[in-house]
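Comment thread on ticket #2218

A.B. wrote:
> Attaching the input chain for the structure job we discussed in standup.
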Amino acid sequence: MLDETPEIGNPDYWLLRLGRQMRKRERLLDEWWRYYRGRPPLPELPPNAQQAFIDFQRKSRTNFCQIISNASVHRLTALGVTAPNGEPDNQASRWWQQNRLDSRQKLVWRVAMSQSVGYMLVGAHPTRTEENGRPSPLITAEHPRECIVECDPETGEPYVGLKAWHDDVDGYGHARIFFDDRSFPYRTAERCGRRLPWGPDSWVYVGEQDDGEPHDLGMLPLVEFARMPDLGEDPEPEFAGVLDIQDRVNMGILNRMAASRNSGFPQKWIKGHRFAKKKDPATGIITVEQPFIPGPGVVWASEGENAQFGQLSAADLSGFLKEHESDVRDMLILSQTPVYYYGGDLVNISADTIGALDILHVAKIREHIAAFGEGLESVMSLCAAQAGVPEDYTEAEVRWANPAHASLAVKADAATKLKSIGYPLDVVAEEMGETPAMVRRITAGAALQALLAASLLSAPAAAPTAGNLPDTEGGSLDG
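C.D. wrote:
> Ran it. Output below, let me know if you need it in another format.
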């Protein structure tokens, strides 16, 4: 049985505490994930119409939450990490490429935008080694369903973390508590499902040493990337503020679909016709015979002298469409997503107009960049510690692609102007959004071309001296 004594150094206590916190937030994660995948709760109808329109309820769901999340993910691209002096760092670039962070970073950004938080875990690579013989760093993207951290209430820094997962092969749940100097492995006492148990009798410690497995990383190897949390509040997904509008959009679409279907078969009326009636001998119920059956080639006729036929007018759907456009624009504006993602009346807009529509969105992305950049610096510092390299990457600089929209022609024009006022070529290349490796390649290529051009220039003529002055006609050097 695990020891639940609330002590900072007690890994049993942290296993149960963080595991229960992780299970507690599963309900929210499930709800946010359903919205992100376009499967929010079905819009409701009156009880007498619910069964008739159950298919409409499913078809009425239109997913804008995923667009809002991915609009931010598309603008978040870390190009690499440089040294504190801004120069490209060979070691950081190698670790970056070995762990495929060009693509794997998007996994973390997307889960942070859709599930409020993502994680990166740094550990020892099982097969790759560094030149000094130490295992190379391994960086993995982690999901909030399997990871969670606890922060120090005084400093705000994370000081204990948990990764817990279900192994489909052996059927057991596995967990590991992380501290800044050691970790503690656990396994469920019995085989279980994907929903892990968090009782004190549910887990057993499986480490070889009672005091855990030491590591020399010097900090918590689990790095959290929280999506723009408010002070004192838990982070939320990118679309958390517009969930009610998403439900309202779905309800409006359902109403429009219902009205459209009913207006496709307008209600008909007849006046002045005498309908035949019949009585059921068993029940005594009187029913009216309906001789007028709609169909192609069918002619309706009545023997009544003043019989009249007609139908009700079709429903006007323009109000539903205007309501839909208004709700969608509200959703994009409140989530600070560019409204041109929902084209509407935007036709032949200029680059300046796009830039103006992008202002709030770019400002939001820069907030994400500031927060996520700190996390990437911590990841690189952990990589250096794992590789046994003394560099401190907390003072490094994470190079990000410019989140503002700009065409290649606009970028080239800006680069030309920067070069003309004296900006170095490497700085100009950075402003163009090139990676640190590409910046080095560009500057090296430019230097090689300059050297080659200088070697092809003809040697300058020798300056006249006293020993090579030509003789003047009819005269001598003595004059």
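A.B. wrote:
> Thanks. Noting for the ticket: Residues 155 and 232 are 13 Å apart (CA to CA).
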